[in-house]
Amino acid sequence: MTFTFSRLQLTPPTSLPPSELLQLGSQSGGGSLTAPELPPGVARFSTTIPRSLDEIFAVIENGQSAEVTPLEWVYCFYAKAKWDEQNPSRRESTAQAIWKVAISDQVLQSQLLWRLAVYFDKSRQDTEVLAPSLADSFPNFAHQLTHSNPSNDLVIKILQAFTSQQPHQSIAKLSFQRLQRPNILLKNAGIPGNLGVAEAALDFVVPEFARLSAPTENQAQWLLDCCNHMSAEKQLQAVETLLSKVSKEVGGSCANLVDWLKNNYGPQQSRWQELSQTARLALNNWIGALNYGYFQKLVGLLLKSNSLELKEWERNQLKSRQGFWANYSDRFRRIRILLPHSSANVVDLNHSDIATLQEDGSAPTEVCIFDFGDYFIAEFFRGPGSETRIFQVSSHPHIEQLLFGSPTLSLKQIRSQGGEIHDHKYLWQGSCERLLRERNIYPNQGTTYFKGLSQKHGEYSTLTGLPTPSAFDRQERQYKLQGWQREMKEIEAAAKQYCDNL
Prior knowledge:
The chain is mostly helical. 53% of the residues lie in helices and 6% in strands. A hairpin with a 3-residue loop joins strand 3 and strand 4. Helix 5 (106-121) packs parallel to helix 7 and helix 7 (153-162) runs antiparallel to helix 8. 33% of the residues are buried.
């Protein structure tokens, strides 16, 4: 089936000359049309021939810059480069005359500095943005511009950085000093934030941060802000550089930085595979240093507290554990801190995983849960028992949810899970090190001497561990263990009975 359509014929539009349109308007009932009212002194039909650059520069040099219109200033910026070529003898004098006006003219000042930043960023190639003569004269007036308007201090420093031998590094340094991302730094100075130098400066923020021996949280946050605005490739390079240049002691002291790395490049994240083997090892060391730092701070707070009324043997136990676990600081993947009510009010620790233990009739003690990968370790700080429990994750399917996921937990609930138990009696460190080594939990790489031990007992070998105590010391240790073992049987029996009745 076919269809035939007739062609649409349109009448050509009527073309009316302006005079007829005016006549039509006057006949529409709205009165005659009149031209808009102009400001006083502005002629209705007169035109002015634009002034040449020679005339404009003559006005400026005669101290009559107020007569130069905004459009003429733009014309100066746009055309001065070509004019300079034709008038080389006046090139420098006219540029200086313009800068002298800018010292007291805020609007002209802002325009010049804005254009100067764009000109420098384009490697002095875009002469239509600014004439080279104006850029060359800038250093002679930088101090006067700051003195006349102190708010220019930042933009002047940025422009001086542009002209330094290492402009990108210089901008990164200014960015760090102000703790502002490079593009934000430029915007706050009143110049475009999308200049190429802002992007290039991001390549140097990590070296700037790496100079610090004790970075603050705000300094670390500045670095994170910069990293979050990098391309994926540039961010990976920055992370590699960060992990290679900053020690675990320094990096591990910045919780916000370690958390960001763990959440973006940690073992459970997709970008973990993009890291080099060296960077992966360093990141694990950073994470461990941070987690051990929480443990170390907790022990320090407990030792300083007067309200807990710790006994001398309990204080010694805390100190010895702090020293022992320092040798494993790189291995800590996670840590959870559990506090009894008696110490929850005296421990002020900024850590995301701190919980208060439920009362279950046990003598109060703090507990730290360490994640060593294949094993979780529960360290009971003080009180009766005061033990270490080691749980093999594969043998306890629900232990991770209990120890790290349960919002409410009691001492007896932890103890009822069993696990391998180790004491903190006489010369406990050597026995505990051997127990850990047999489960492939080793001290920090490069350890040759155990912190917190005497020279006699602290020498360490990756093959044999800590020195074997003398026969007398072993006998003394066995004697002291007997009372602890009886105590632990009673504690575990009470824990089992309590949990059976839940």
